[in-house]
Write a structure and sequence with these properties.
The complex is a heterodimer of chains A (about 300) and B (about 325). Chain A is mainly alpha-helical and about 300 residues long. Chain A has eleven helices and no strands. The chains are: A mainly alpha (about 300), B mainly alpha (about 325).
């Protein structure tokens, strides 16, 4: 009897130790996060609240250098990316989830998307370099950068769309069909509105990924010294909008940060840290929005 | 639509077969094709097909561009040469140093990420109270939201000097610190997917183990872990694939010199970092050296393709099994 009690006590002890180990391992991640953020702020706080940092162009002189052109470049790039990736990804997701017959073609497309999601981002850069810049003789422009990033995040948008659609009960579709809706009416009037929250969450996560991505942009040759802004998209004369900016050269936040990291002087390392803080704030706030959105959706929807 | 014959609607009582299933009913005009619906379906199919076009594009571009490279460099030299020196005269293109770089940094990253990620997954799925998990899981996932260029800075400025205190004669930029940071970055990829797999194991299996006197830890490792193995395998493969393809961390922090060594304390150059290096303008466009980035990319693509496809089938199996 005593032996059994001893055995039970030992097993319980073992369990407690393992729980502690598990917690410790989980905390390693959190500690990394905190140390990284604290370190960046420590190195980069000098210029963080300096308005000229946000209103000046990158410069060879560290004291005058700022992030105006990379910041604008990143925002415009995100805009182009989202405009291309979301319609295409949602359409593909709707097709695969609602229309696709179970056949070899569909399986091929599914395996293909799973593979694309795992292709290293730099390969997308090589694709853009070979196909768009060498093949179609396009400039190293915002348009090319946007296409590259859109292709990169396309699998994420497709997968989240499919998951959001799968969460809608079959009964909703059947009810709509019973009232005489066509397939497209079911999709457009019901499935897409109901899955919008899920799609938005996934798209925001994908955007944060695209914002922080630098490797494919480096490959298409975006690592250049840009001290101008793209032409404004709005103008006073008709037709009031102007698409010149799409063909403009650009730089982006992560690329500028990389550029500053690769310089030997300590002042540039500080600038890199400041740019890093700004970049992290951008991606983390997007993620925070996504987390809140997901949380609220999960609470609200009870099918 | 306005005049529905009453007889028609009373005939279709649930349970009885539809009257005249072979011939078309007057109400449901199946003779009239819905062109709009058909067109929409085609458009949606095309959108889904774009992903296939992208893959074909990747393969075609990589093969085409590297074919001009392999016209100048024999395959045997490429795969067995131990010197990678595209700027030398004559240039030497032996991929082995780059493969070593990729292998070492990936190896270090996996040594960090797989054990920690697995333990985190076990803890989250078997131990953590609901409130703890609700807080820790999204926070941990923020690790994968940090741009890789920032991780590169972290590896170079913080982790490198820290590890230098342990290995005194190590240079500041080395494969070890890049690998460690890469490992930290992929923890959430490994833990999240593994946890999903473990949580989908039916409660009944756990209760069986408890009834036989096992504690949580034994249940987790002897029952739940093996039962979820295909899902956990796909998580590991995702981690490996991420580590092989990771670019900015190694480009910044691994040292940037091709090095035929398996010692992680040395500086090294990975396939991905080499592509970045060339893109920064070290070599003139159109030269054999420049074309080499496509050959390097092809090798990278083939490596990850294998892992991705195995991962897909493992994931599919674990989705189907419970």
């Amino acid at each position: 009897m005593k032996a059994i009690a001893e055995l039970i006590a030992r097993r319980k002890r073992q369990d407690r130790w393992f729980a502690l180990l598990g917690l410790a391992c989980t905390l390693i991640g959190l500690v990394t996060l905190v140390v990284l953020l604290a370190g960046l702020i420590r190195d980069g706080h000098h210029r963080l609240f300096d308005p000229t940092f946000y209103s000046s162009f990158p410069s060879a002189r560290a004291v005058r250098a700022g992030i105006l052109s990379p910041l604008v470049g990143s925002l415009l790039l995100a805009f182009v990316t989202i405009l291309m990736a979301v319609p295409l990804g949602v359409a593909a997701g709707v097709y695969l989830e609602e229309y696709a017959p179970r056949n070899a073609w569909t399986t091929l497309i599914e395996i293909n998307i799973a593979n694309l999601a795992g292709v290293p981002s730099i390969i997308f850069g090589l694709l853009a370099l070979g196909a768009l810049i060498y093949g179609l003789h396009m400039e190293r422009s915002l348009l090319v950068g946007g296409i590259t990033l859109a292709l990169l995040i396309l699998p994420i948008v497709i997968v989240t769309t499919r998951e959001a659609l799968r969460a809608i009960p079959q009964g909703i579709r059947e009810a709509a069909y019973a009232l005489g809706a066509t397939k497209w009416q079911v999709v457009w009037h019901h499935l897409i509105p109901y899955s919008l929250g899920g799609i938005a969450t996934g798209t925001i996560i994908a955007m944060s990924r695209a914002l922080g991505e630098s490797a494919p942009l480096m490959t298409i040759g975006a690592l250049t010294f840009i001290t101008f802004l793209p032409p404004a998209p709005l103008q006073k004369q008709p037709p009031f909008v102007n698409f010149q900016w799409l063909n403009s050269e650009f730089t982006a936040m992560p690329i500028q940060m990389f550029n500053w990291i690769s310089r030997p002087q300590a002042q540039f390392s500080e600038l890199a840290a400041t740019a890093g803080v700004v970049l992290i704030l951008m991606t983390l706030s997007l993620n925070a929005v996504a987390i809140v959105l997901r949380y609220r959706l999960r609470k609200r929807i009870k099918w | 639509m306005t005049s529905v014959p009453a007889a028609e609607s009373t005939q279709s009582v649930p349970g009885t077969p539809m009257p005249g299933a072979g011939q078309s009913l007057p109400l449901f005009g199946s003779g009239r094709p819905r062109w709009g619906e058909r067109a929409i379906e085609w458009l949606l199919f095309l959108a889904a097909f774009v992903s296939v076009v992208v893959t074909i594009g990747i393969v075609a571009i990589l093969l085409w561009e590297s074919s001009t490279f392999f016209r100048g460099v024999p395959l045997l030299e490429f795969f067995t040469g131990r010197v990678w020196a595209p700027t030398f005269e004559p240039p030497r293109f032996g991929i082995l140093p780059l493969l070593c770089g990729t292998l070492v940094t990936t190896g270090v990253a996996l040594l960090v990420a797989l054990p920690i990620g697995s333990i985190v997954a076990v803890y989250m799925s078997e131990y953590a109270p609901f409130a703890v998990r609700e807080f820790l899981k999204p926070t941990l996932e923020l690790l994968s939201a940090i741009p890789t260029v920032v991780y590169g800075y972290f590896a170079l400025v913080f982790v490198g000097p820290m590890l230098q205190r342990v290995f005194a004669d190590m240079p500041g930029a080395n494969m070890l610190s890049a690998g460690v940071v890469m490992g930290l970055m992929i923890i959430p990829y490994v833990s999240s997917l593994s946890e999903d797999a473990m949580r989908s194991v039916p409660m009944l299996l756990r209760e069986g183990a408890y009834a036989l006197g096992a504690n949580r830890m034994i249940t987790a490792f002897k029952v739940v872990y093996p039962a979820a193995l295909s899902g956990i395998g796909s998580a590991y493969i995702l981690g490996i694939s991420r580590a092989i393809g990771e670019t900015m961390i190694v480009a910044i922090a691994a040292g940037g010199q091709p090095n035929f060594t398996l010692d992680p304390r040395q500086p090294g150059l990975t396939i991905t970092a080499y592509i970045v290096q060339v893109s920064m303008g070290d070599l003139p466009r159109g030269s054999v050296g420049y074309q080499s980035i496509f050959a390097a990319g092809l090798l990278l693509f083939v490596c990850t393709l294998g892992f991705n496809i195995v991962g897909y089938f493992l994931r599919k199996r674990f989705r189907e099994s419970y």
